[in-house]
Amino acid sequence: MTDKANPIRFGILGCAAIAHKVSRAIGLAPNATVVAVGSRSLDKAQRFIAVNGLPPATRAHGSYEAVLDDPAVDAVYVPLPTSLHVRWAVAAAEHGKHVLLEKPTALCAADLDQILEACRSRGVQFMDSTMWMHHPRTARMRELLSDPNRFGPLKAIHSSFTYGGGDPDFLQNDIRVKPDLDALGALGDAGWYCIRSVLWAADYVLPRTAIAHHGCVKNQAGVILSCGATLVWDDGQVATFHCSFLSNLTMELCVMGTRGTLHLSDFVLPFEETPAKFKLATDSKFKELHIGWQPLPSEHVISTDLPQEALMIQEFSRLAGSIRDSGSKPDEKWPIITRKTQLVLDAVKESIEKGFEPVNVTG
After folding, report:
1. 133 with 213: CB under 8 angstroms?
2. Would you give per-residue pLDDT tens digits along the chain (363 residues)?
3. What residue stretches are annotated with the GFO/IDH/MocA-like oxidoreductase domain (predicted)?
4. What CATH superfamily is the domain 8-132?
5. Phi then psi for 310, rounded to 5 degrees?
């Protein structure tokens, strides 16, 4: 059994801002610990360890290679720019390390396939770090979406994730607007969450077609700052999403069925760390004289002792521990979900590049 007495030992490749949050999550998870941090600068790795209050025995390495060569490291968390993912995720797998990879996981599905094949061939666990997938709210919402008496067949989905609000410093200096670092821009960063939420609501059935919306905004280097798309399924289901670095912080998800509507305004990151809310309206009608709704939507509050990022670490470590301790096979659920997300993202990007023409989603 994997616990704090026998935890999965993490090495962190890089000291990106998100790594501060994830290092805290590793500390909170009952079956994981950080044992090494690597940076291109030894001093930067040492500062990261100190600032985040990591265990005193945590080793600082002045290169990513040193983390992979560290025999005490079971798994790596990789928060590097997307352009570096193939190189370092493949190298980690080849060193026998389990791979928790920041999103977007790759610049295209062909690159992602190299990573997944390396993990598959070495028998290591792969997971992307889409944290909201691990909140118990997500599981409860799935139960309700599957209830024919409360939701019914799925008809439409809309997802929005925007932030930044046009902050000049972010738009000029952040790695997510640099073509050599994160060339997918807002589509890769915020759009990844939107696409994942759409696929989650559709129970991971891929749409047939992606059609990017006119009005895509790019910076002078050609990196997407704002975009959206419509996704269409063979059975008539439809989804739309919008992602942007130019609007106020917004995280809306609305899922519509024949009998019900599920809605939440914080699907990526809950407003509060432990309780998380959503609303479900079922068999909604107008009141007499159209002066209101009946019945009113029900509000659901789902609480958790651990934040969603720590639950992600806990699940990843459970899977890695099962491989280590019981000889289990890696769980294929997570690579499959990641690849489907990447395929839709690729199709939207291709539609933008083709002048907003429809593009088939093919795997």
Report:
1. no
2. 567 789 999 999 999 999 999 999 999 999 999 999 999 999 999 999 999 999 989 999 999 999 999 999 999 999 999 999 999 999 999 999 999 999 999 999 999 999 999 999 999 999 999 999 999 999 999 999 999 999 999 999 999 999 999 899 999 999 999 999 999 999 999 999 999 999 999 999 999 999 999 999 999 999 999 999 999 999 999 999 999 999 999 999 999 999 999 999 999 999 999 899 999 999 999 999 999 999 999 999 999 999 999 999 999 999 999 999 999 999 999 999 999 999 999 999 999 999 999 999 987
3. 140-262
4. NAD(P)-binding Rossmann-like Domain (3.40.50.720)
5. -75, -35
103 part of the active site: yes
Tokens linked to 51: 């600032």
| φ and ψ at residue 154, rounded to 5 degrees | -70, 140
Catalytic residue among 103, 218, 277, 354: 103
Instruction: Map residue 331 onto helix, strand or coil.
Output: coil
Spans of all domains in the chain: 8-132, 138-307+342-360
Residue 58, classed as helix, strand or coil, is: coil
In this structure, which amino acid lies at residue 51? V
Using the 8-state DSSP alphabet, how is residue 182 labeled?
-
The CATH number given to 138-307+342-360 is 3.30.360.10
By DSSP bridging, strand 238-244 and strand 154-162 are: parallel
pTM of the model: 0.97
316 close to 127: Cβ distance less than 8 angstroms: yes
Residue ranges with strand state E in the chain: 8-13, 32-38, 59-61, 75-78, 98-101, 126-128, 154-162, 209-212, 217-218, 224-232, 238-244, 250-257, 260-264, 275-282, 285-286, 293-294, 298-303, 359-360
CB 330 within 8 A of CB 339: no
- What is the length of the chain? 363
